[in-house]
């Protein structure tokens, strides 16, 4: 016994994680359903465990990265003993509720958990470009911070085990929001023969300007106070209608702008025409502070 860290799950991501902790000089135990995938790591000095339970008990902290929570449940189904205060850092992607459920199970098995979301590809693991969001046991995060830092830019979000998974999907929402909005602009400009590359510096300028509004708008949402210093929802709705009309006239798909319009229309129907744009939060999360 006696390695610093165990890595369970040696797929593309798990192998990158195990590589990073080996490179950082840690003594490493690994386990994978298909043992052959451990060969390269074993040749670099990792120890191969013959069961998940013995792998977890070999180190104070285990990093788990398998396909999904169903795989994780299967892998841990054979664990029958007490995990004796070990820390599980679960980097398997999943839903917030799955993370909370795993934390409850681990608690009963005598383990503490950190649940994480990796916002990076395997090749960046071990560098500052690999964003790793973690939530759950703050004590576990503090104790194992140097180890977690060897994986990438590891950030602790709070003690709700579901938070990392929630930040993960919220981040994806921002990503697809930006990508689809940019594509709408590319489509509009293409009708006048303008290349995506020619349009993109302007698109980036608008995106940057818009991002600059977010801290002030976040403050409005948090205070539940939507005084329009810039433009009312009614003014925005007029602009959105214009975007829909021009898209339609040019034969460009108008589904996305129409969706913007329908959210604004619901806010107006609810009596929020003269509030600032972030009052739309009430349409997305009823019962939030705009009501
Ligand atoms: P892979 O498909 O490469 O690896 C999957 C791993 O899960 C393998 O180790 C596999 O074992 C194991 N596994 C699957 N089912 C079971 C099971 N029933 N019991 C035991 N082990 C099982 O996936 P990745 O490594 O790419 O992804 C792993 C996790 O990391 C996912 O949750 C993914 O969303 C997340 N992630 C991946 C990123 C990426 O770019 N790859 C980016 C961000 C997050 P075996 O070798 O035996 O098949």
UniProtKB/TrEMBL annotation:
Residues 5-156 form the 6-phosphogluconate dehydrogenase NADP-binding domain. Keywords: Oxidoreductase. Residues 160-285 form the NADPH-dependent reductive aminase-like C-terminal domain. One of its GO terms (molecular function) is NADP binding. InterPro entries: 6PGD_dom2 (IPR013328), 6PGDH_NADP-bd (IPR006115), HIBADH-related (IPR015815), HIBADH-related_NP60_sf (IPR051265), NAD(P)-bd_dom_sf (IPR036291), RedAm-like_C (IPR048666). SUPFAM superfamilies: NAD(P)-binding Rossmann-fold domains. Belongs to the HIBADH-related family. This is NAD(P)-dependent oxidoreductase. It comes from Cellulosimicrobium protaetiae. The lineage of its organism: Bacteria, Bacillati, Actinomycetota, Actinomycetes, Micrococcales.
